[in-house]
Amino acid sequence: MFFPETGNVKHIIVYRCQQCGGRQKLFKENWVREFVLTCTGQLEPIHILRAFEDGEFGVGVVHCEASKCRTLTGCQSAIRHVKYARQLLGEVSIHPERVKTICFQPDCDLHAELNHFLEHLKHLEEHASGSAPDVLERKKT
Fold first, then answer.
1. Pick from 11, 30, 14: nearest CA to 82
2. Architecture category of domain 2-126 in CATH
């Protein structure tokens, strides 16, 4: 997604379980950076925080239904890790709703879900106070 006022391209990072649509990339939009994982339970809060540190616009985590999870607890781990990452983002004044979980179901339209998330992110940005940081600052050592 291109923002002409700044000349920046902002992306939504999508972490997706390979059981949710296969191993190949599903999103062709240039504003989506998709990472296919063997299980979203592998996703740690640091991965979500690092996306914001890198200046990304939002993070989506697509996980399978609990009853269909091949690792049995992967989706529960992903949800728990996202919840913790949201808490940490809130502590540094980045809106926690910039991270979204999507439960993949056979009738799930991931593109519609992602477009809805994008509109939500735009709404958040329009109504954000100017004092809130847009990205995490990396400490230079």
1. 14
2. 3-Layer(aba) Sandwich (3.40)
